[in-house]
Specification:
Length: 374
């Protein structure tokens, strides 16, 4: 007999799929309303009918494909090197002195590409997953796991939006917006015809009151216009917001709370310029930009940062040095970390010699306290 606790968890998991089921039903109905009721039964011009059906199916396929990828792409978790070994876990649990705990975490984090800290300056440590959090990684309470470059947990896809599927989420927003705009634009003239006060519309209104077959097409066309136009407005705002986030190389969580580095919070800490920020999400091969296939750069565990390499978006000081780099280099120097292949591909080759020298310098980490984040 299954424990009552497991049954309640399974029940909650089923409930989480309700928003996805709702969206799926709306999309299935919109397909019937547009293809059957509008294109086949209402539009009389054959050329117009063929064009509408072809364009609609292209947008529909891309929309469903990107939505499917956003839902069923499993979120990526930190690599094994960020997890505490069994011996380190036992050491951390046995130690009561804070200094000893600090030494354990410093030893583990010494060779890891970790630059962000908690608000108090400690290494970001997850006591549920027992790992050191990579940069931009957060623990999702809904998924109960640490998600690489977590943006947010979206109930409409019943999944975490993060490094593994953020491109799919962006394409989902883009194609759903185009889908709704196309349906709204092509349905508008037939929507207006039902509300134009003339003899023909009067007959249709009488048929509507009498429940004749014409009412079915009227209902679907009218409601399809209202639904598509309403979704278009909300999707336009959401898509514009995430386009801004991509250009600034921020996640939704980072937009609300700037990532904290050793020198303090910096909202532009990961920004490398608009073009490089875009390539981090969509990749550097243009043929994959519009397709919901994974092409993002990197491994999700390490990211180039303007605090180690000059950020072209940041204003330069008269001496040509980035103020944030200067502050970090003088007061809180980062330990030298290995730049991964994904980072090197995004960095400028023409950086000044002074910047390269500053990248190579480093001292040991200052004393860090353990702060458990969830």
């Amino acid at each position: 007999m299954a424990p009552s606790g497991s049954r309640s968890v399974d029940c909650w998991r089923v409930l989480y799929w309700i928003p996805v089921l709702f969206i799926s039903l709306i999309v299935a109905w919109s397909y019937y309303a547009y293809v059957v009721q509008l294109c086949i039964d209402t539009i009389e011009n054959m050329g117009e009918k063929i064009v509408y059906v072809l364009v609609y199916h292209v947008l529909f396929i891309m929309f469903v494909w990107s939505y499917w990828q956003t839902i069923f792409t499993k979120p990526m978790n930190p690599l094994k090197e960020f997890h505490l070994s069994h011996s380190d876990k036992e050491l951390l649990e046995r130690e009561d002195r804070r200094e000893s705990q600090q030494e354990i975490l410093r030893r583990i984090a010494k060779d890891l590409p970790i630059y962000t800290r908690t608000m108090s300056g400690a290494i970001r440590y997850c006591d549920r997953c027992l790992l050191l959090k990579p940069d931009r990684c957060h623990h999702c309470s809904a998924c109960d796991m640490c998600i690489l470059k977590m943006d947010h947990h979206c109930p409409w896809v019943n999944n975490c939006v993060g490094f593994a599927n953020y491109k799919f989420f962006m394409l989902f927003l883009a194609y759903s917006l185009l889908y709704c705009l196309f349906v709204t634009a092509t349905d508008l003239q037939y929507f207006i015809q039902f509300w134009t006060v003339d003899g023909k519309t009067h007959d249709r209104l009488i048929q509507y009151l009498n429940g004749l077959p014409d009412t079915q097409a009227k209902f679907h066309i009218m409601f399809l216009f209202f639904a598509a136009s309403t979704f278009s407005v909300s999707l336009a705002f959401l898509f514009a917001y995430h386009c801004w986030l991509v250009c600034k190389n921020r996640s939704t969580l980072e937009a609300f709370r700037a990532p904290t580095f050793q020198h303090g919070p910096d909202k532009n800490g990961f920004s490398l310029g608009t073009s490089k920020n875009f390539c981090q999400v969509f990749g550097d091969e243009k043929k994959y930009w519009l397709l919901p296939v994974f092409s993002s750069l990197g491994d999700g565990c390490s990211f180039p940062t303007c605090l180690v390499n000059a950020d072209p978006e940041q204003p330069s000081s008269p001496s040509g040095r980035n103020p944030s780099i200067k502050s970090a280099g003088e007061s809180h120097q980062f330990p030298p970390k290995p730049l991964r292949e994904s980072q090197s591909r995004l960095l400028n080759n023409g950086q000044s010699e002074g910047s390269e020298d500053r990248d190579k310098r480093g001292t040991s980490n200052p004393a860090l306290t353990i702060e458990k984040e969830t």
